Amino acid sequence: MAASPRRLAAALRRGPLSGQLALRLLSAAVGMPVIVVAILVGGPLFAALLGVAMLVALGEIAAICGIPRRSPAFLLAAAGLGAALGVAITEAAPLHHVVLIAALAVFAAATLEASLREQTPREDALQRYLAGGVVMAAALLYLALPAAAFVLIRGPLGGGDGAEWMLLGVLAVMSTDAAAYAGGRTLGRHRLSPAISPNKTVEGAICGWLGGAGAVLALDQIFGLEPGIWPLILLALVLPLAAQLGDLAESLFKRARGVKDSSNLIPGHGGVLDRLDSLLFGLPTIYFFLVWT
User: Fold this and answer.
1) What's the pLDDT score for residue 114?
2) Is this structure's pTM higher than 0.85?
3) Are 99 and 147 in contact (CB under 8 A)?
4) How far apart are CA 66 and CA 87, in angstroms?
5) Within-domain flag for 10
6) Is residue 73 part of a domain?
């Protein structure tokens, strides 16, 4: 008996979804052990792997905005990113001084390149250099400060519990994303922000918030961190919200540039920036929590 058009359409919809989910699970199965080992080992290995991930994310931002990776602005932004991680792991200088100097150097490099290369007044070329300097300086701040927070949580700020705090942050953010995805697929009816991310729903966001909060509370008990009941409840409420704002922030950037994924580097997940987006807002929440408590 021939399948009805409605059943055939449903089967076609299920096929790509199941294939996409399989790719996501396979990529996670390969990537998660590497992440966990790096966090447990800590030190230079953790900083080095984090630096590679952030450098790839910086390259994705440059590619989306049409900025050549050989441009002085990109190269100085990459150097500033490495300097921020180096300062965070060695505590050799005030971090904000290093990042601020690097951001100014990026913009100065774009200005100098425009001055040397453009001998005739061409507005389009000058706008390109200006945009390149602004984008790379902003990307440096966007990536370097959270990356330094990651290193500080795993190192001096987290102390003997640094690995546990990093794992709590990473796993709680992942739980937020997974709960939001599952809740949106099964319960989603009302769009959260159609202009930024049409697939996100209010119901999915609520599920993500609840899932992330539950994960924070459960992981605290598993790791025996004991920060105090009220600070822990505050962290459980705020961390999932920060993670979802990070996801929306990257979606806003991609929507403004007219792209779906930051790249296709990770099968089923998009690019490195797509995997870091929630962590870039979520993990600094852990950083400030540890500083203030």
Assistant:
1) 87
2) yes
3) no
4) 30
5) no
6) yes
